[in-house]
Amino acid sequence: MPRKPAKPCSYPGCPEVTNERYCSKHQKEVESKYDKTSRPFKKLYNSRWYKLRKQFLLKHPLCEECKREGIVTAAEVVDHIIPHKGNEELFWDESNWQSLCKSCHDRKTAKEDGRWEKKGRVYAYDFK
């Protein structure tokens, strides 16, 4: 079966051609930048967190937000009520955890991150 023709590397100014998005040199660079910036607290989650999370969800199987609304929804995520932002004491404090469904967790996280305030500005055009 024929392969797609190689295309230029997506890294600005790179003359190399590749079958992927980036050439092998720039792929490593892009991945290392992504890892450093996207999940700065990754080490906390790559620990005993998964075992504790599973135990917590077994004890608290319903979404707390939905329960407040009178809706019964299975919880999928253990959320930190007060965002820990790398504070290990706050991260491991079980009294700072709550069970949420993915929808409620994503909504809460978007509000905390300020993504909702930015929503209207991202695609705003100035036609002056």
From TrEMBL:
InterPro entries tied to this protein: HNH, HNH_nuc
A Pfam family of this chain: HNH
Keywords, alphabetical: Endonuclease, Hydrolase, Nuclease
Domain HNH nuclease: start-end pairs: 51-106
Gene Ontology terms: cellular component: cytosol
Signal peptide residues on this chain, from the entry's feature table: none
GO MF term set: endonuclease activity; hydrolase activity; nucleic acid binding; zinc ion binding
Keyword Calcium in annotation: no
Family: Belongs to the HNH nuclease family.
PANTHER family xrefs: HNH NUCLEASE YAJD-RELATED
UniProt protein name: Putative HNH nuclease YajD
Organism of this sequence: Clostridium tyrobutyricum DIVETGP
